[in-house]
Design brief:
Blueprint lengths: L4 E5 L3 H13 L5 E5 L2 H8 L8 E4 L8 H10 L8 E5 L4 H10 L3 E4 L4 H16 L7
Parallel strand pairs: 1-2, 1-3, 3-4, 4-5
Helix pairs in contact: 1-5, 3-4
Length: 136
């Protein structure tokens, strides 16, 4: 399995720590960079020579919410191909439909139990580690 470069866009620091803890407990050596909101993420993505393999995106964020960020991302010729997976507590069907319309690679609900969360993260990273990813 290849090590992924992951961009986590999440404004809740507890969620950031939870993902890092899950990754460490699974002994995965993926490189995770963080952005606290969509604006910061877009600044990071300006470094075109160091693009992530996948993006994990929370929907409910200040400044630019997840759906607005997705629209900007998918309008960019180079960034539109980065698989973006929604990682959220929102099971709002309108959000789900809107995200798939814009073009996401997946929509994962954060479970309440930590063990379930770790299990989902393990499957998510295992799946994307074996995918052939586009580098543009």
């Amino acid at each position: 399995m290849k090590n992924l470069k992951i961009l986590l866009i999440e404004d809740d620091m507890i969620e950031v720590m939870k993902l890092k803890r899950a990754t460490a407990s699974l002994e995965l050596n993926h490189h995770i960079s963080e952005a606290n909101n969509g604006e910061d993420a877009l600044k990071l993505l300006e470094q075109k020579d160091n693009l992530p393999d996948i993006i994990l995106l929370d929907l409910n964020m200040p400044k630019i919410n997840g759906i607005e960020f997705l629209k900007i991302l998918k309008a960019d010729e180079r960034l539109r191909y980065i698989p973006t997976i929604i990682l959220t507590t929102s099971n709002n069907q309108r959000d789900l439909l809107e995200c798939f319309k814009i073009g996401i690679a997946g929509y994962i609900l954060k479970p309440l139990k930590y063990e379930d969360y770790v299990s989902k993260i393990e499957k998510l990273f295992a799946y994307w580690s074996v995918n052939e990813l586009i580098t543009v």
